[in-house]
Amino acid sequence: MLPTLAAPSITPDYYDDYIDFAALALQDADFAKVCGANDGKVDLQDPKALQQLTKSLLKRDFGLAIELPDDRLCPPVPVSQTYILMIRYNYVHWVQELLDTTSDNYDDTYDPSRRVFGIDIGTGASAIYPLLFASTRPNYRLLATELDSTSHASAAHNITLNNLSSRIRLHQPPSATAPLLPLDDLSLSHASFVICNPPFYASAADLVTSAAAKSSPPHAVCTGADVEMIYAPSFGSSGEYDRNPGGDVGFCFRIVEESVGLQERVQWFTCMMGRLESVGKVVARLKEVGVRNWAVRCLRAGKTRRWAVGWSWGARRPRNDLVRSSLVNIGGVQPFPTEQAIHAEEKTAEELWDTVGRALNPLDLRLEIDAERKTVLGFAEKNVWSRAARRKRAREGDEDSSKEAQDEEVALGFRIKVNEGNLDIRWLEGMEEKLFESFMGMLQRAIHPR
Ligand SMILES: C[S@@+](CC[C@H](N)C(=O)[O-])C[C@H]1O[C@@H](n2cnc3c(N)ncnc32)[C@H](O)[C@@H]1O
C-alpha cells in the first residue's frame, strides 16, 4: 500500500550542523520511540535508531519514504550516513541554485514556471537524488540511470512508493561502457543538469587504504556493494591510467569527455568528489578540454565533507558564492569571481546612480533600468567602452547604435545595484573574464576618476 505522507513541514536551504533530536521527537512518533527508549538520547551506534533518524528526516523535511535492500549503499545506516543524507540534499540544493542563478530571468531567483529536466547518473537503490529534486521542486522531471540490477529494482520500488513514476524515469544502461549520458540513445534533445555521486574508489585496495586512513573499518561505516563503491576501468595499453585513473576522478573524467560532445545540450554538468584533491584533477581536465565556466563547492554536514564540481559550456554565470568557496582551498581551482563591489563611502546612492548613468548611457549597450531600485541590467555584444571603441563610435556617428540588439549574441551581461557608498556588480553572462575585468575597470575609473 502507498504511504500517505504529510507535506514536508520545512525544506532547509542547506543542512550544516546536526539535528535537534528533541524537536524531531516531538514531530515524529516513530523517532520519539527510539529516543524515548534511551532517555531522550539517540544511540548513535545503533543502526536501527540511525535508520529511523534518517527516515524521520526524509519524512519531515521532504515528505519522502524510502525502503532499501540491506546490502546496498543507503542513507539510513550508521551515523555518517545521516550526514551523507544531509550532504546529498546540500548537493541537490546547490544544483538547484546553479540553475536558478543562470536562468532566462537573470534575477537569481527560483522560477517555478521554468521546466527543468535533470539526469542522475547511478541513482542507487534509494533513488535519493531524483526523490529529493522531485519532492522539493514540482516543475522538475528526471531521468535516473542505474547499472546494477538489484539497485535498479529497489530504485523503481522507491519511485513508485512515493508516487513519482510520472516524473522520474528509470533507465538501466546495457553495459558498464555504454554512455553515462544516454541522450542520443533515448532521443532526448536537452537536459538542464546532470548530477552524479560516482563510485569513489579505484580498487578494493584503494577502499581499504582510504578507510584505514580514517581509522575505521570500511564496512562499519558503509553497506555499499563493490559495484557502488568501486570504479575500475580495465587498463590496457600504457598511458590509459593517466587518461582514466578510475574512482571518482575517473568516473568524472568520463562525464567530462561526454560533455565535450554534448556541449550546450546540457546546461550544467556536475559530479560529487570524495576527496578535495580530486577537485584539482577534475578542474585541470576541464581547463584542458576548454571549459571556461565552472564552479566548485564544499558540501558539508557536521564533520563530514564532500566536494562538488560543476561546469557549463554555456555563458550564463552563477552567483559568486555558488562557484567559489574558501573551503575548496587548493591552487588553481577557483573560477573568476562573478560578483564584485566598488566602494565609494563618501558618495550617496543618488550621486553614484548619476555617475553610473553618465558612464553607461553613451555606450552601445542594451539596458534595462529600474530607477526605483537603482538597478540596471545591461548587455553588450562586444567591448564598447574601450578607448578604441569610443573613438570608432565618434568617427562613425551613432548609426550603429540604433540597431536592435535584442537577438544579437551577448558578449557580456551584467547587473549593477547601486547602494549608499558602493556598487555591487554581478557578472551574469559571458565567456571572457577579461571582458568583465575591463568593464569593471571602466566603472572604477568613472567612480574614482584620477
Ligand atoms: C556511490 S553509488 C551512488 C548511489 C546514489 N546516487 C546515492 O547517492 O546514494 C554509485 C552508483 O552508480 C552506479 N553505477 C556505476 N556505474 C554505472 C554506470 N555506468 N551507469 C549507471 N550507474 C552506474 C552504481 O551501481 C551505484 O549505484
TrEMBL record:
GO terms for molecular function: methyltransferase activity. SUPFAM superfamilies: S-adenosyl-L-methionine-dependent methyltransferases (SSF53335). Gene3D superfamilies: Vaccinia Virus protein VP39 (3.40.50.150). Transmembrane segments: none annotated. Keywords: Methyltransferase, S-adenosyl-L-methionine, Transferase. It holds the Pfam family Methyltransf_10. InterPro entries: METTL16/PsiM, METTL16/RlmF, SAM-dependent_MTases_sf. GO terms for cellular component: nucleus. One of its GO terms (biological process) is rRNA base methylation. It comes from Viridothelium virens (Speckled blister lichen). Belongs to the methyltransferase superfamily. METTL16/RlmF family. Signal peptide: none annotated. S-adenosyl-L-methionine binds at residues 88, 122, 146, 197. Its EC number is 2.1.1.-. This is U6 small nuclear RNA (adenine-(43)-N(6))-methyltransferase.
